[in-house]
Input
Amino acid sequence: MTAQTFTEIRYERPTERVARIVLARPDKRNAQDMKMLYQLNAAFDLAVQDDAVRVIILAADGPHFSSGHDLSDAGSKVGDHGPPVTGHGGFALPGPEGYFSREEEIYLGFCWRWRNLPKPTIAQVQGKVIAGGLMLVWPCDLVVASEDAEFSDPVVAFGVNGHEFFVHAWELGHRKAKEMLFTGEAITAAEGKVLGMVNQVVPREELEAYTLEMAEKIAQRPTVGLKFAKLSVNQSLEAQGLWTAVQSAFNLHHVAHAHNWVLHGQVIDPAGMAVVRNQARGKGPTG
Ligand code: ZN
Output
């Protein structure tokens, strides 16, 4: 895959030392289908392998950063959009075994891979970030949000514990994480900054320029210092048990998928669909 073959994203070089990857499905609120995830992964690889690139920005076209995973893409199979990249297998096996493997690859595996890229990454965020949308923002090192940005993970309504990259307690603190999950309500950009989940909040019209300026400032520092600073902070979190906890939550996530399959014949509780849709439109939990 090259930058020219991307259809769901764009790969840009706004300056000599900065790469910008842009989600480019604004008509779908940047919902992530499998094709987009593999293109994103390829774009991150391009940026990592180019020694001229020192900082990577992840941005999005349109009014909303990402509405999460594209649930209409459930028929896509791992391998349809390129070879598996995270070392997992068994994707075509029947039952929860195959489904667990699928989500190990395209959700948990990708998030963990992107979280550990050896260069600083900045999420440039506007509008709504829902469930799987957080799985693009939270693996990034820094988050710059516009004033209208809001963050939610309403998928408890689907009968699961949360989205597949379960770092909620680290991002928000344990009480706010529970409130977000239990109520499904969104956290605003301003609240996110108070909680330490968002680095900076800026007016919408200044978002792109502010983020690029921050990236350029970071890019002036030596790559070795940046790489080891990132590793040191990431490993501090791992020493606190982050990776073990994330995997434990992922396992429970798949108990929930299997539970829903037995009760409802599908991996999520279909009753949650109306709840999540209404909440995404800002109508509250039942309206
Ligand atoms: Zn899942």
The domain at 3-280 is CATH 3.90.226.10 (2-enoyl-CoA Hydratase; Chain A, domain 1). The chain has a mean pLDDT of 95. DSSP finds ten helices and nine strands in the chain. The chain has one domain: 3-280.
